[in-house]
Amino acid sequence: MSTHRVTRLHIDPTVCDGKGFCAELLPELIGLDEWEFPVILTGGLSTDVPAELLPDAKRSVAACPVGAIRLSKATK
Amino acid sequence: MTDHVRLLPADPATRRLLDLRRLEAHTAHFGPLPTVPGPKEGRPGPLAEQVGIAGLRGRGGGWFPTARKLHAVVESAGAKGAIARGNKPVVIANAMEGEHLSNKDKVLITHAPHLVLDGIQAAATTIGATSAFIAVHRGSPLVSILDLAIAERARIDSVRVEVITPPERYVASEETALAHWATDGVAVPVYGARPFQKGMNGRPTLVDNAETLAHLALITRHGGAWFASIGDPQAPGTTLVTVAGAVTHAGVIEVATGTPVVDILARCGGAAIGVRGFLTGGYGGAWARTDDVLAAQWTPVSMAAQGAVIGAGVLWALEPDSCPLRELARIAAYMAGESAGQCGPCRFGLPSVADDLSLLATAHVGPEDTHRLHERLALIVGRGGCKHPDGTARLISTGLHAFQDEVAHHLNGRCSARTTAPSIPLPPGRSIPVARAGKDFK
Description:
The complex is a heterodimer. Chain A is α+β, with helices and mostly antiparallel strands. Chain A contains two helices and five strands, in the order βαβββαβ. Chain A has helices at 21-25, 54-63, and strands spanning 5-11, 30-32, 38-40, 46-49, 69-75. A three-stranded antiparallel β-sheet of chain A has the order 4-1-5, with helices on one face. Chain A has a two-stranded antiparallel ribbon with strand order 2-3. In chain A, strand 2 (30-32) and strand 3 (38-40) form a beta hairpin. Chain B is globular. Chain B has three domains: 23-229, NADH-ubiquinone oxidoreductase 51kDa subunit (Rossmann fold), CATH 3.40.50; 232-317, Ubiquitin-like (UB roll) (Roll); 324-441, NADH-ubiquinone oxidoreductase 51kDa subunit, iron-sulphur binding domain (de novo design (two linked rop proteins)). The chains are: A alpha+beta, B alpha/beta. The A-B interface holds A 12-16, 18, 33-37, 39, 43-45 and B 189-192, 342-345, 348-349, 352, 376, 379, 382-385.
């Protein structure tokens, strides 16, 4: 099996203020709870970003007014 | 039934715990602390190997292997020339006793403060720490005991120990919150790196519970094999348990791990007939049915198999006359008020589930209300910067499971309790946070 690089999206819950832009820009990966805080649909505080969603993921990072979202590269 | 006494020796005639607050009395009983070699070539001193042989696990609630923490701190300090940059490790002894039902660290420090202070010295020397702290909550009577003990041993200590007093808030005793407090005086948890990587002032920080360090002090004297000679092989040694609630003699006792829970209760004169269930671990622990708890041994694995936890070593028997759902609602409201207000799921989620529970407690609910409660509980877990929301959600979920018969009663508008009086003691209530961590965490 070959290893490959994947992009992961992380939410810092202590920074997040529930503005909800991320869920609007990236509904494939992020929803909102009843208090309008982001819920990563696969659970937890981070998720893999499929290549086709990378542009939207980058847009959601840029759109977050408090800088609560970041992307990282990981080897799988 | 054998009494295993290591940390809290008693007078054989009066059965009262020995007062070992004076260094002289402490040394006469336990012997002097041997010299502890420091770290070498990116590895902790040889004591860490003995701690590994001992199989010592953290007594603050996590039961994490202590030797692994010692190694991790030294490895972090060695990474990329961290020590060369003055990034020397720090030790913080956690004696906050954030779980209010727990009394073990208070009893330990009231009777044998030097054992904890020995443990701090041994740990600090092993990992090459240059500063050390012991955290007790503000206003605690332990402050003066520790100040006196530290002054008394100043001439023999190689690392200076400072008493720090964060505010008495539930999350203030969380390890990242303690490191945060030591850095800039704000006792709220930090998301991201663990203290062993980046703790006080960014330095690798060993945060260990006071009881854990007392055990470490005895391993320094007698070795790992001695420590592991009693107790459960997976989590050896003795441990302190706070037994309270509907038992004949509430108090803190020392038992070998693996002791059957029925024997622990017997040592406390037994539990009342008709006990409603047990709160295990503390407010951040788990509720369990009486029969399940009575079938367990006091080990993390055996307790978990019965749906219970050891956590901070709390075993609370709920009064036969009480309504478990009312108690659950009270604790949930308290835990909601203890949120630092940093993360949405905790800041808004915990008050919402606390509201759902107070409806359930008063028995004016329908199935849609309990359905919403379960949905919210599932949504809260795994989304906070610390484990406060997860711990609270677990307490509530285990309570709803353990007391499902009572839930059914309440859904029919009935309650089987004979009193509505509060049973479990809670600290004064605080308003539920609507804003981020405010001045009461400073």
